[in-house]
Amino acid sequence: MEGAIRSRLPTIFRPDNSPPQYYNxxxxxxxxxxxxxxxxxLIVLIHAHPFLLFGLPFITVIVAASFVLTPATALRYERHxxxxxxxxxxxxxxxxxxxxxxxxxxxxxxxxxxVGSDREEYxxxxxxxxxxxxxxxxxxxxxxxxxxxx
Length: 150
Description:
mainly alpha, 5 helices
């Protein structure tokens, strides 16, 4: 029996450093038979105890993943915050950023809407002349239907 076990060990684990012996067909069929039996036993056990052998490991993996991913996500956002930060006036001058009319200030995006109070918005809308307007059609591309009925 010892010779049979020794012949299946890789060369580095054998004391005599003899070349490895190849498996014969009986050994291969025996290996596959053992694997099939193991799979069938697992299937029967899962059907007998589905929560214990399938549900509990699944829930455990989900909970463990949440504990692992929470610090990973926090690290991601901390690294992002380190890269993106506000420029002060000295750094802006060093980079050569200038505002409109050559002044030494950082200009903001004019399209960015700063929402004020409701009263402010009401008076802005009341100041506009909303009664005097004309509907104009957008010019269509060649071959595109314009939506008019003849």
